[in-house]
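Appendix C: a fully annotated inverse folding record. The material below is reproduced so that readers can follow the format used throughout the book. The structure is listed first as tokens, followed by the designed sequence.
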């Protein structure tokens, strides 16, 4: 009995001690550690990356990766078109390798607590939380929005003064803010010292095999192989590459490395991809790091079949290289001479096979803000390509020899004092080329339908300009445009090199002015190429319609006369030849036209796409009443921004997205300044098309499908700002809407469902305060 009692007492003691230990442990244990990858980056992606990504991130604070957050902020703007001296590039993952190196370039921390104060990021979040804006209200006028906002980039010691002067301008700025859980998670992480673990992307087995095959192709020994590898690199350096059979969200990019395949990449960071690398190098494929954002997401698919295609194009014929070209301004200015040894047919066909990608590189662009390019293009136009068999540069070696020296492009010499002389020199050289082309083509057979390349669904493209950004889409979208472009190889290659390869966003005013002025000549060349397909006796009048008012002076000053004698081989209606051409082109293209468009080109009683269920067919039928009508008869267009998104919600929960694009009419697009004086607002129109056709939504309307007819009726009745305000109040999603982020990111979710390779975070820097 005493033994049993003793055992019971001992057992009770052990149980009590264990329970006390457990209680003590529970009382003293800290909250679970916060992971940057699992907990912090998802919050930043949801609430911050839409503004803080790419070169136009406010204060260069890029929140798409731990590296960008650790780098911090800078007072030096990337976009400063009036600067007289170029600045050092500050490309994340390229131009510095660690935080100390970024500090040496003027970046300061937003994560470190300093002087007894919390981290700058923590204080910015507190400021944003201290003065929330009323739900779904307009942003106060004193809070400037948009790209013209003058960013104030306070350093930690300047924050108190900033907060006193900007009481409602904490972070996130002028938008629905963080919820309680997000705010607390971020503040706990910042208080803990903001630890950032690295997140690496590991290629799959299939991706690794294809990476090895492509790297082997570009790094083959031999002069021919070295020249082809260089040309391919310069044409693919912007691509977000994905592989057949690869992971949906894995993308890769080409770089030059001091180390060969199989070893860690030792990146060579040059200002341009055609600058001298300064040492022996190898072409390597590396993962695209950080959150993928739509504005820089220019995709390019690779596969074993495409590898075979490249081998066939570039090595399927016998050609030789006498000496490899060097690097430098002369080689950058004229890639036709630099790569003369590579058969022109191979180069052009490679670009045609992937025409959408190449047009995207210089129209949508990699630099996040494309005003240098977009102010010389119209708001909607179609892009066509000349068949290689009808391209004189491809088929005639003597002509090619005469043309090559005339195809050099400006921008390599950025001396401000020499800009006028440089421009005149290159303008005159270009005009000599246009004379040569005009006279040579006049001796060729009349151009017909066979002049147009029809090799795949890249053959027909549509460009939409959204003021200082633009988008490119396969197919012929919208009503018949005011102008069309026809690219041949010299024009396509020059456009690519001038706006993608050689354009330096960190360059000075001279470089940027030369780039813009030469692109004006490129656009003019594309328009003239197309006019050769029109009746000869109407070409002058059609060209004059593109260059109204002051454009006439520009035609006299900078452009060459066109061929208005040689007939076209296409029979067209003399009363409306361009419109007749457009509809015949659509009919001939058939399935090659990737974008049937009954909403904007309704030819009968049914103005919706085939195979839609009745709910969305009726919605499209109603929406078609808003399209292709001039603003003089649809006054609501005056109130609309460039790119609005329509989210149409069915009663069953299914929803579809449409882009409602405002096409601004211009008397001409031939001058560097004064665009607002050349608007013809009464001729503005709307294009409404399924999908997300802009990286930069300006506004979202959320409309139940059953209310689409009411929405259309209200739009048709609206004559002023007050009546438009009622439309916004009923269907609009303002920046302060409680569910703003749900609706905004639903655009990306829709892309994930419909075009998964194109899905990426959209930009809200241009989201308007309607």
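Designed amino acids, in order:
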């Amino acid at each position: 009995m005493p033994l049993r009692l003793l055992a019971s007492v001992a057992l009770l003691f052990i149980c009590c001690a264990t329970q006390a230990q457990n209680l003590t442990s529970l009382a003293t244990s800290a909250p679970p550690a916060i992971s940057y990858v699992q907990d912090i980056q998802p919050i930043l992606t949801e609430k911050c990356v839409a503004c803080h990504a790419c070169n136009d991130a406010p204060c260069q604070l890029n929140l798409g990766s731990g590296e960008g957050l650790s780098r911090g902020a800078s007072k030096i703007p990337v976009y400063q078109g009036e600067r007289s001296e170029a600045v050092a590039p500050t490309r994340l993952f390229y131009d510095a390798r660690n935080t100390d190196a970024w500090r040496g370039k003027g970046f300061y921390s937003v994560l470190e607590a300093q002087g007894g104060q919390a981290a700058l990021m923590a204080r910015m979040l507190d400021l944003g939380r201290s003065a929330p804006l009323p739900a779904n209200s307009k942003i106060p006028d004193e809070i400037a929005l948009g790209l013209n906002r003058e960013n104030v980039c306070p350093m930690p010691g300047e924050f108190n003064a900033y907060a006193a002067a900007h009481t409602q301008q904490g972070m996130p700025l002028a938008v629905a803010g963080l919820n309680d859980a997000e705010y607390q998670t971020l503040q706990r992480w910042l208080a803990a010292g903001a630890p950032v673990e690295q997140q690496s992307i590991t290629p799959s087995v299939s991706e690794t095999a294809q990476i090895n095959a492509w790297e082997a192709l570009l790094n083959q020994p031999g002069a021919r192989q070295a020249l082809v590898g260089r040309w391919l690199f310069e044409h693919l350096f912007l691509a977000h590459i994905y592989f057949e059979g690869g992971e949906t969200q894995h993308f890769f990019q080409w770089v030059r490395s001091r180390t060969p395949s199989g070893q860690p990449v030792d990146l060579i960071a040059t200002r341009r991809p055609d600058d001298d690398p300064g040492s022996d190098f190898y072409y390597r494929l590396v993962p695209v790091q950080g959150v993928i954002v739509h504005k820089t997401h220019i995709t390019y698919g690779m596969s074993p079949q495409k590898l075979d295609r490249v081998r066939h194009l570039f090595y399927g014929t016998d050609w030789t290289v006498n000496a490899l070209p060097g690097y430098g301004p002369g080689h950058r200015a004229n890639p036709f001479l630099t790569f003369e040894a590579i058969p022109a047919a191979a180069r052009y066909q490679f670009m045609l096979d992937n025409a959408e990608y190449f047009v995207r590189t210089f129209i949508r662009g990699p630099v996040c803000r494309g005003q240098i390019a977009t102010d010389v293009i119209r708001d909607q136009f179609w892009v066509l390509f000349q068949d290689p068999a009808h391209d004189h540069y491809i088929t005639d070696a003597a002509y090619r020899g005469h043309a090559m020296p005339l195809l050099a492009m400006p921008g390599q010499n950025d001396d401000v004092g020499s800009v006028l002389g440089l421009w005149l020199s290159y303008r005159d050289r270009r005009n000599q080329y246009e004379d040569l082309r005009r006279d040579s083509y006049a001796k060729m057979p009349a151009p017909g339908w066979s002049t147009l390349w029809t090799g795949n669904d890249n053959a027909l493209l549509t460009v939409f300009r959204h003021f200082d950004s633009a988008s490119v889409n396969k197919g012929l979208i919208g009503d018949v445009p005011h102008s069309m472009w026809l690219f041949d190889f010299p024009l396509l290659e020059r456009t690519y090199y001038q706006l993608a390869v050689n354009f330096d966003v960190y360059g000075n005013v001279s470089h940027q002015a030369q780039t813009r002025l030469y692109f004006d000549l490129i656009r003019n060349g594309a328009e003239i190429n197309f006019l050769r397909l029109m009746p000869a006796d109407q070409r002058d009048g059609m060209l004059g319609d593109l260059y109204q008012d002051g454009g006439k002076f520009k035609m006299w000053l900078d452009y060459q006369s066109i061929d208005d004698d040689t007939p076209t081989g296409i029979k067209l209606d003399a009363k409306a030849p361009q419109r007749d051409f457009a509809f015949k082109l659509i009919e001939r293209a058939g399935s090659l036209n990737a974008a049937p468009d009954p909403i904007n080109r309704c030819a009968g009683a049914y103005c919706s796409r085939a195979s839609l269920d009745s709910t969305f067919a009726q919605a499209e039928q109603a929406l078609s009443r808003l399209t292709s009508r001039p603003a003089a008869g649809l006054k609501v267009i005056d109130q609309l921004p460039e790119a609005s998104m329509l989210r149409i919600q069915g009663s069953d929960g299914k929803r579809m997205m449409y882009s409602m694009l405002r096409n601004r009419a211009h008397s001409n697009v031939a001058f560097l300044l004064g665009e607002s004086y050349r608007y013809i607002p009464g001729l503005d129109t709307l294009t409404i098309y399924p999908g997300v056709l802009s990286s930069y939504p300006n506004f979202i309307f959320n409309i139940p499908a059953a209310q689409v007819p009411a929405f259309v009726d209200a739009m048709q009745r609206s004559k002023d700002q007050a009546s438009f305000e009622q439309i916004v109040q009923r269907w609009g999603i303002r920046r302060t809407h409680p569910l703003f982020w749900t609706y905004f990111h639903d655009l990306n979710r829709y892309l994930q469902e419909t075009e998964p390779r194109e899905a990426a975070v959209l930009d809200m820097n241009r989201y308007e305060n309607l």
